[in-house]
Specification:
140 residues, mainly alpha, 2 strands, 47% helix, elongated
Length: 140
């Protein structure tokens, strides 16, 4: 499993918005400047986050983005599942894969399944609020 820039940047956006304290909408331009990320690249990321209910967007004067829920209710796992094709450690465990014909006799499958559960459990157990509260969270 390798987390792409899309996943890492999505986390940075969510942490940035959590640090704003929910006080209104934050323009994407401001988020991009604070995070040192291209505004154009962030547009696609925030659209996906908004379309999946993690962000709320507002157009026009005073518009921008804000978290759709309290940061304590948004897990890192939920963000990464939206931005990454898969968090599975091996292809046979990725969502939508056909069952492996060797699964019944695979001696390593239990290892990969346990690792997959550990990864999911860990990422689902860390919230955006946890990251925003952590020292050095502005530059993960």
């Amino acid at each position: 499993m390798l987390i792409s820039t899309r996943g890492r940047y999505a986390l940075r956006v969510m942490i940035d918005l959590a640090e704003q304290g929910g006080a209104g909408y934050t323009p994407l331009k401001e988020i991009a400047a604070r995070q040192g990320i291209s505004e154009k690249y962030l547009e696609n990321i925030v659209k996906r986050l908004a379309a999946n209910g993690l962000l709320r967007g507002q157009r026009g004067k005073g518009g921008g983005y804000r978290l759709a829920r309290p940061p304590e209710e948004i897990s890192v796992g939920s963000i990464l599942r939206l931005t990454e094709e898969s968090l599975a450690p091996v292809a046979c465990l990725a969502p939508g894969q056909q069952p492996c014909p060797r699964a019944a006799g695979c001696r390593t499958l239990p290892l990969w399944q346990a690792l997959d559960e550990l990864i999911a459990g860990y990422l689902d157990g860390v919230s955006v609020a946890d990251l925003a509260a952590a020292e050095g969270a502005k530059t993960p």
